[in-house]
């Protein structure tokens, strides 16, 4: 992939002596070294994400929100270059709202995932981002899709993404079960993210969770003190 | 209106009467210049090219769509132009997706152009959104496409009416799309040459109790009745249906059953005419 020829604007950072080298891929852009995950439980879907956004080694935000709403019952977790994934989510939100006006009924989760896939695939030379898309629709119920870098779309029961995810595949394979209760699933995700954040330097901060059921959407915020696991 | 204005303000002279006559003649459209382009309104505010297209659509073979208790049936007739014509080579029912189909009347090549656009829209939609298009959305898009052709000087409106039938999430839907781009959803509808006769026959049916199998009989009956008396042109009838029997795919009605119903319809009409 070509490097992004984006000159960093002379900012307070460079005045402060923090030099951002645009030649090194990813430096000079806010990006999310991330731990995001989501899983289907017996009553819906739970998303989870850390809250760290970085520019190279610099932590640009400690409280970013990587779980984004696409439609009433459809949500996504973002990973990759912040600007890219935010723009993509915005596009999908826009397309889907048009689609809903045309159809006059709730959109399919697959449709949202399909739109993301199309955008990622068509612009694969320019975009760096991945998504976990999920939620509920009246036709197919609770679903989860992983939309990866070049436009790969995979349906999953649980999904992991971001740099931190590599540390917890084993944990998830061991701990994930079909048809967990909401409490069990919340616990599963909280611990997974805590483990990932403990090992991954790109991930950190706090945890955000979001639970989608056919009836409700609820958010949860987990501060560091309440993590089930910390490296000390 | 015109008459009153003239009567009030002008004396009724031969000269005025002739002028009046010419003016009324001109209101019919031909020769005034108002009908040369679909970008020109006539003084009544109508676009003559669209009116002509409607007329072209009304001059084709009769087509009928019936929404039944257990599914949906569409049918149409077309004249067999020559004895040398291979049977079933000039169809008027077209499949668009696996559970959306349409029957066209009027200028058939125009209809085919619209159908091919409908197929394009359907495949593009499925590709883009990852699910099959609904007939409500497709009817809307096809109607918009036909409407576009009433807007530009270099184009002419399509000379065809289209009855589109589909199943949206298990619910049967029926639409009639006209050359003007107007479309409505119906329980039952008819277009083409014999649409008036067909509509009066449809009014006699109890659609909430009608089954698809009965509908095939009634469609045959309507088509026979709507043909002009004493006209012995050869014709073929296409009928397709979607119901639980066909797994809600659009499928032509089995030939033996169709022929049986045609015979029965003709016999019944004959005996009705004899008065027994």
UniProtKB/TrEMBL annotation, chain A:
Pfam families: Proteasome. Its EC number is 3.4.25.1. One of its GO terms (cellular component) is cytoplasm. Its main location: nucleus. It is an enzyme of class 3 (hydrolase). Gene3D superfamilies: Glutamine Phosphoribosylpyrophosphate, subunit 1, domain 1. The active site is at residue 34. It is found in: Nucleus. Keywords: Cytoplasm, Hydrolase, Protease, Proteasome, Threonine protease. It catalyses: Cleavage of peptide bonds with very broad specificity. One of its GO terms (molecular function) is threonine-type endopeptidase activity. InterPro entries: Ntn_hydrolases_N (IPR029055), Pept_T1A_subB (IPR000243), Proteasome_sua/b (IPR001353), Proteasome_suB-type (IPR023333). GO terms for biological process: proteolysis involved in protein catabolic process. PANTHER family: ATP-DEPENDENT PROTEASE SUBUNIT HSLV, METALLOPROTEASE TLDD. This is proteasome endopeptidase complex.
UniProtKB/TrEMBL annotation, chain B:
The keyword RNA-binding does not apply. One of its GO terms (cellular component) is nucleus. It is found in: Cytoplasm; Nucleus. One of its GO terms (biological process) is ubiquitin-dependent protein catabolic process. InterPro entries: Ntn_hydrolases_N, Proteasome_alpha, Proteasome_alpha-type, Proteasome_asu_N, Proteasome_sua/b. SUPFAM superfamilies: N-terminal nucleophile aminohydrolases (Ntn hydrolases). Gene3D superfamilies: Glutamine Phosphoribosylpyrophosphate, subunit 1, domain 1 (3.60.20.10). Pfam families: Proteasome, Proteasome_A_N. Keywords: Cytoplasm, Nucleus, Proteasome. Signal peptide: none annotated. Residues 34-56 form the Proteasome alpha-type subunits domain. PANTHER family: PROTEASOME SUBUNIT ALPHA/BETA. Belongs to the peptidase T1A family. The proteasome is a multicatalytic proteinase complex which is characterized by its ability to cleave peptides with Arg, Phe, Tyr, Leu, and Glu adjacent to the leaving group at neutral or slightly basic pH. The proteasome has an ATP-dependent proteolytic activity. This is Proteasome alpha-type subunits domain-containing protein. It comes from Blepharisma stoltei.
């Amino acid at each position: 992939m070509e490097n992004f020829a984006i000159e960093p604007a002379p900012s307070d950072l460079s005045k402060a002596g923090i030099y951002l080298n645009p030649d090194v891929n990813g430096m000079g852009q806010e990006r999310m070294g991330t731990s995001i995950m989501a899983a289907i439980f017996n009553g819906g879907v739970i998303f989870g994400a850390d809250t760290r956004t970085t520019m190279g080694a610099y932590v640009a935000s400690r409280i970013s929100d990587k779980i984004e709403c696409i439609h009433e019952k459809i949500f996504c977790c973002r990973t990759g270059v912040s600007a890219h994934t935010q723009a993509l989510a915005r596009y999908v939100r826009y397309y889907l709202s048009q689609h809903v006006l045309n159809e006059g009924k709730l959109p399919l989760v697959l449709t949202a995932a399909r739109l993301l896939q199309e955008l990622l695939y068509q612009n694969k030379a320019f975009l760096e981002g991945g998504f976990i898309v999920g939620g509920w629709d009246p036709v197919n119920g609770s679903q989860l899709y992983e939309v990866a870098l070049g436009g790969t779309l995979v349906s999953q029961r649980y999904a992991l993404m971001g740099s931190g995810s590599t540390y917890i595949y084993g944990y998830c394979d061991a701990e994930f079960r079909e048809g967990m209760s909401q409490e069990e699933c919340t616990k599963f995700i909280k611990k997974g993210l805590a483990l990932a954040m403990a090992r991954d330097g790109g991930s950190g901060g706090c945890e955000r969770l979001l639970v989608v059921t056919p009836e409700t959407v609820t958010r949860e915020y987990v501060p560091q003190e309440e993590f089930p696991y910390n490296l000390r | 209106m015109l008459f009153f204005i003239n009567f009030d303000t002008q004396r009724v002279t031969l000269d005025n009467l002739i002028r009046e006559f010419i003016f009324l003649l001109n209101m019919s459209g031909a020769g005034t210049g108002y009908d040369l382009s679909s970008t020109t309104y006539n003084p009544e505010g109508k676009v003559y090219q669209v009116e002509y297209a409607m007329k072209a659509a009304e001059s084709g073979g009769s087509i009928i769509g019936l929404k039944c208790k257990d599914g949906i049936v569409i049918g149409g007739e077309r004249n067999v132009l020559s004895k040398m014509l291979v049977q079933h080579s000039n169809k008027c029912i077209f499949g668009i997706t696996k559970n959306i189909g349409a029957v066209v009347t009027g200028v058939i090549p125009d209809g085919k152009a619209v159908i091919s656009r409908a197929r394009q829209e359907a495949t593009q939609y499925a590709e883009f959104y990852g699910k099959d298009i609904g007939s409500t959305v497709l009817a809307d898009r096809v109607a918009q496409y036909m409407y576009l052709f009433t807007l530009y000087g270099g184009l002419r409106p399509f000379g065809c009416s289209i009855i589109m039938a589909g199943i949206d999430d298990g619910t049967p839907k029926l639409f009639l799309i006209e050359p003007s781009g107007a479309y409505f959803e119906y329980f039952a509808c008819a277009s083409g040459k014999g649409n008036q006769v067909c509509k009066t026959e449809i009014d006699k049916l109890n659609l909430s109790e009608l089954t698809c199998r009965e509908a095939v009989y009634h469609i045959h009956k309507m088509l026979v009745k709507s043909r002009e008396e004493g006209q012995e042109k050869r014709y073929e009838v296409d009928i397709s249906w979607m119901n639980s029997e066909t797994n809600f795919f659009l499928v032509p009605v089995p030939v033996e059953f169709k022929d049986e119903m045609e015979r029965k319809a003709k016999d019944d009409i004959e005996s009705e005419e004899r008065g027994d």
